[in-house]
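A common beginner's mistake is to predict each chain separately and then try to dock the pieces by hand. The better habit, illustrated here, is to supply every component at once so that their relative placement is modeled jointly.
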Amino acid sequence: MTDPLRTFVPLAWRNVWRNPRRTAITLIVVAVGLWSILFFNSFMIAWMQSSKDTALQILTGSGQIHAEGFMDDPNIDLVMEPPGPDLRTALEHNDVSGWTMRLGLPAVILSEYKTLPVTLTAVDPIGETAVSILPQKVVEGRYLADRNDDGIVIGLHLAEQLKTGVGRRVIVMSQSADNTMSERSFDVVGLFDSDQATEDFFAFTGLAAAQSFLGLDNQISELVFELQEEAPLEDNIDRLKAAAPALDVRSWKDLNLLLATTDAFMGSIIFIWLGVVFALMAIGIINTQLMAVFERMKEFGLLRALGMKPRLVLLMVTLESAVLIGIGVLIGAFIAALSIWSLSDGLNLSRWAQALEMIQGGNVLYPDYHPESFVLFSLIIWVLGILVALWPARKASKYSPVEVMRRDT
Amino acid sequence: MAGEIPRRRLLGQIWGALVVASLPSMSMAQDARDILRAAFDNWRADSSYAKVEMTVKRSNGTRTMTFESWTEGEDRALVRFVAPARDAGNATLQLDGSTYVFNPRLNQIIKLPASAMSQSWMGSDFSYDDLARSEGVIDDYTHRLIQTRSVSGGQAYVIESVPKRGVPVVWGKQVLTVRSDGVLISVEYFDQLGARVREMRADRIGNLGGRPYPVEMTMRRDDEPGEYTTVRTVDARFNIDIPSYLFTRSNLQNPRN
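With all components supplied together, the output reads:
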């Protein structure tokens, strides 16, 4: 036995197929387990991407810049001047795909029937299209034409609550620069469709129109920027911080904590799932392998009696498990790839759109192959499977040949 | 020579026709405004004192409160609740375009933010705005006399008032009915699509302080027909001398009268 592997691999292969039904069970357990991990992983990544895209593209952008203190207490005393030359240069960087200025202040909106709090968000409609998808989300009427547009665009749900609509007037009240209350009537020119929180809390008007309404010159309350897809977030944040040391530069991770936490959590949740699935798989593997070992007690006794060392029995049974679980892993990875491929046109969840609005997800998910996770999870399952199967293998190697051969069964 | 006279007459006739054609609209608008002005003057006079019972009917019960009010000019008013005990002491002061609210339990004066002005006043169907702006209608709206009809006690003018462009008013229009002697009979509030939202109507007109007066008025929302607020003026005096300290914040908190 110069090269035990050369003998044992074919032997193990043949042993695997001695009891096809049991082998099939183990294969199914491993394959389904791995499939669920791989598919779930891909699904979650797609979901995360979609909710990130949706949430960030509505208003947040990749990051925002405010005057120091504005985020804690958004009010008109904490507005800032438009970006100076340094910041402007930093914003014109290649990594930044777009940026725009906004003036967002707490306000109250009144209709004939109701009074509700909103954030009056004054925008430059042309710049806005570079960072936000909201301009395309107008389902009735129109979006704002330019920064002098003094119409107002509100959410569908808000309009419903106010019992107002396109072509009607609403009154907006907000604190103006001289600390008195300004009020003005705005014509509703458009309604947008988004998640309910956005629909309820944001009302959009032209930047210049709002500045004159609130008695400001050209001050703004926030700069929103959108980075290119592959641009490093932290590096760019640092770069902008350096260009605007007096201002409060934040990435979306600081602006949308829920999303950032979910993002971080998603990475670990797949391992929790892996743990759960593997626990179930381990029970299946151990069960079938133990059965196989018990059934073949006489065989092991005979092999031992013929002079095979316990070490080699262990090796043989472990090899059997390795082959068996290996095949299961391959099948699992294959059907995972297959099911992801079948959804490559997107998984349409619009039927549950309303429920999904709550968790900020998009309506269509695009699960994708992630080769590194295919390799990683397959290896993890295979190695863990073999480790678990060591227990039955050890049991097989421990049989005393005399004892087992004397048994009837 | 003979031809000149007819020509001049013709010219005169054209001028006359033009003047007559333009007059009614102008004078009617002016008339409508004057009628409203007279109605509000009748209601509040230069200065006034009134004691009023306010009944708020809700689906879960009815509540009656009594308050005293003083007004002077267009922008000074003080309302102080005297009964029942749990509401007594609550007071609202209008001064220079601001509204202050005093709550005896908090012992605090709160200057109402504009955003709160449209909220219900003491749980009634009136808002703070209704108290503060009832007269704003005269200047913020354009008025048109749309109808003259007879009511008990004389003729009444029905005036349609449409807010001027840009004025921060939510209503599509108001329709006010004023009796020829200046008594406000009803105010109807319409949304911008022309649907009526609520109506204030005089239920009883009597004599108070030596003038005809809508003694009992009810405000009703059309979407809650079972709920309403009635104000019944039990005592009123007009054009009286009011000490200047009355309309001050210190008097709001520590009444001297």
